[in-house]
């Protein structure tokens, strides 16, 4: 409806109302004067419209009456509710109509596209026919065209001149092409096997497309390798694109799985490694995947299963080394196997076996690093090997030896970072090493040095999180740094700083634990921070808050310990919970119960050498309670 239609209706209604009013006034006056002689229409009009003011009032009344009737019986303005009702009633019909119109448009576009393609094809064949008709036509094209016509007649094939021209043109191109496989197509055409030539050409086209996709995937994997040290999230995106293009690329899946573990958790990483496993063709790749699956199982607290994976990888590596004993890559793989098996042995409380594996790891990496001092990857692995040796020295109570090993690791890590300050992976390594230096200093009660080392680690990790806030592994490491700073503050009696540091760590560990239910390591860190919150409450004299914190931590620790009873770290978390509850004189946890729990760990060989002093203290306190614990 045009916009002016409403205005025109109003004008017409007004005119009709005025005419009706005038007619009514004249007729009424005529009736009153009809008894007089010689009355005319003009006399009635003069009388009707005199005086003017009553007349205008009458007209206004009539207009108002007409307007009222028009509003009463005419169309009404649409209210909000009415509009919604109309939309609901007609919306589906409108969507159907629009969808049909869109489909018609798409069909028209598709038809137009096909017409264009057909036109291009016709133009190409027409050009070929035109060339064949010229006196200077390509002799090879003419010969191919004549051969096609002759074969068609001999075999009674229904081929038009246009089709024959197209086949001839294809034959010439295939014969002149240098691409592998095109000569085969040319031979099939020459033999008259046009259908076979068509199938072979389609096969080659698909193979070339697949090869192109593989090449692009390889380029993206290389891009990820370049970006990984400086922008891990970008590397992850490149690898996702690479695996989309080429799902058979084993190493793209492996690299992606490692990054997905850092960003998205263990379950997503496992799916990547499982995808890689579907396409493994070489033993060396299979060995790496054994390591990757074992690493996930280790974080999930499944020590036995993890050890089986690492041992399987070790067997493969040793068999490959038998054939190539001087291969540095295989030696590096063997070193990685020693490291992983050592990690399992350490977590299980078999510290002599852990030491043997870490010594073998360090010897291999020292030998490799000395052969090529410029190989930064080997230098990094050497630094981490020193860190592993420091860990085992510290567990066995050799704090000076541990500190020296950590210093050696720190010096290498510092040189690497100075050589490439933007390498985020090396910065992360250095933060871990500084933290270990702090652990050794803390064990030696050098709290000032410990605080400095922990603060240095925290600064690095905050910088890393600022550059990549979605890397959850880096968030976890930051939580650990805050936890360590809280330890020093608590040891120095600074309860305010200790509570602040522990609270920050506790909240972050809580978020991480909620993010990945299968990562036992993260849940264990949450337990540790919960215990520390109880320690602060104990120091403040609030034993009720302390009991709540210890009890909550103990409930989680016992659940984690049930996953794998051989895990010494998880068993330690349980007896530490008992120890803390007994230290605040909780009636459910007398010292005799603590002793029984610790002696059970000792019998299972899951009590660390440095923890025997706590067992002796618990025995003394149990004796003071007057309830001597049973021996053994």
Share in β-strands = under 5%
Instruction: State mean pLDDT (0 to 100 scale).
Output: 83
Backbone shape: flat
Question: What level of helicity do the residues show?
Answer: over 70%
Give the helix tally: 26
Q: N-to-C terminal Cα separation, in Å?
A: 99 Å
Number of strands: 0
Task: Give the biggest sheet.
Answer: none
Radius of gyration over C-alpha positions, nearest whole angstrom:
44 Å
Low-confidence stretches: 75-84, 86-99, 115-122, 628-632
Q: What is the helix/strand order?
A: HHHHHHHHHHHHHHHHHHHHHHHHHH
Broad structural category: mainly alpha
Describe, in plain words, how this protein is organized in 3D.
Helix 6 crosses helix 7 (182-190), helix 9 (232-245) crosses helix 10 and helix 19 runs antiparallel to helix 20 (472-491). It is built from 26 helices and no strands. 81% of the residues lie in helices and 0% in strands. The model is unreliable at 75-84, 86-99, 115-122 and 628-632 (pLDDT under 50). With 632 residues, the chain is mainly alpha-helical. The chain has helices at residues 5-33, 41-48, 52-73, 80-133, 139-154, 161-176, 182-190, 194-227, 232-245, 250-264, 266-277, 283-299, 303-323, 328-347, 351-371, 376-395, 399-419, 424-443, 447-467, 472-491, 495-515, 520-539, 543-563, 568-583, 591-603, 612-624. It is flat.
